Amino acid sequence: MSHNFQAVWKPTIFREYIGVKPYPDNLNNFPENIINPKISEFHFILGFATEDYDQEGKGTGYFKRTWNYDYFNPDKVRELKKKYGNVKVIISIGGRHTDSSQYPFNPAEKELWSDQAIDSLKEVIADYDGEKDECGCNNVIDGIEINYEEIKCTDTDFAHYIGKVIKELKNQVPSIKVVSIAPSDLVRPHYRRLYQEYHDYINWVDYQFYDQKVSSKVEFVNLFRELSNEYQGKLLAGFSTDPNDAGKISREVFLEGCSELIHRKLLPGIFVWDANDSAVPRSNEKPFLLEEKAQHLLTGSD
């Protein structure tokens, strides 16, 4: 396989999922202490906006937020952005759960689904939008992410109906400047088709490396290079601190692999799933250790 992706001269972005699981006692706000001011962009990805399903388990396209609104409300986002000019906040659409079959992409009526999804997601975003204050934070929400792990349709249909949502939200909602997608090994063809048809609207690709077995640094680097052909320099490397993902790729393999990719000028950034687990450290470790190490790699810090 040829490798024709473009080199990335300097990493620019770090992303952290938050709000996606039950909350530990020490996570009732954005953990601003993990933000490295040297990173060009730090994204908190709020999860999830999930849709309602009918009695047959088919999606209606009516989305609502599931994160704790009191913990991550618009005022807290604005306050965070006042302190940190490099912070953006993204809403993740779909859902990643222990039993992901609870939230499949499986529209009841496909054309109606897209229209309903656009309208309901605009309402979710509007809950966070307000008048511009002294920090200029009228764009409280900066973007969206597509994060379906189970897809019950063809790759063509997935690309068409999700692509319509991405395109219309980016065109109709001025604050939506960033769009990302979150493919994994099991649904890779669907996201590949989506990217091929809507790559002009997609800024980043959060591939779930932690959702498949990756045993060595060489294997990780080779997989990244292979995926980079599909996603044209927009691919980010992802690691999970969720105990349910343990054993698929080790922290050592991930960090060593990222270091190698940075050395080769191929890695634009890193994302971590998820703050809810990182806030509860392993034995004798401080919270968010992986986030700290990853950002040090990206910024060349000691």
Topology diagram in text:
Layout: E1 13-18, E2 41-53, E3 59-65, H1 74-83, E4 87-95, H2 110-126, E5 143-148, H3 155-172, E6 178-181, H4 188-198, E7 204-206, H5 217-231, E8 235-240, H6 251-263, E9 269-273, H7 275-278, H8 289-299
Parallel strand pairs: 1-2, 1-9, 2-4, 4-5, 5-6, 6-7, 7-8, 8-9
Antiparallel strand pairs: 2-3
Helix pairs in contact: 2-3, 3-4, 5-6, 6-8
- Beta content comes to 15-25%
| Annotation, overall tally of beta strands | 9
* Total of helices: 8
Rounded mean pLDDT is 92
User: Could you list the spans in which at least 5 consecutive residues all have pLDDT below 50?
Assistant: none
Query: Oligomeric status of the shown chains?
Result: single chain
Rough shape? globular
- Main sheet properties: 8 strands, parallel, barrel
Tags for this model:
302 residues, alpha/beta, 8-stranded parallel β-barrel, 8 helices, 9 strands, 33% helix, 20% strand, globular
Please explain how this structure is put together.
The structure is a single chain. The chain has helices at 74-83, 110-126, 155-172, 188-198, 217-231, 251-263, 275-278, 289-299; strands at 13-18, 41-53, 59-65, 87-95, 143-148, 178-181, 204-206, 235-240, 269-273. The chain is an alpha/beta fold and 302 residues long. Helix 2 (110-126) links the parallel strand 4 and strand 5. Helix 5 (217-231) crosses helix 6 (251-263). The two termini are 36 Å apart.
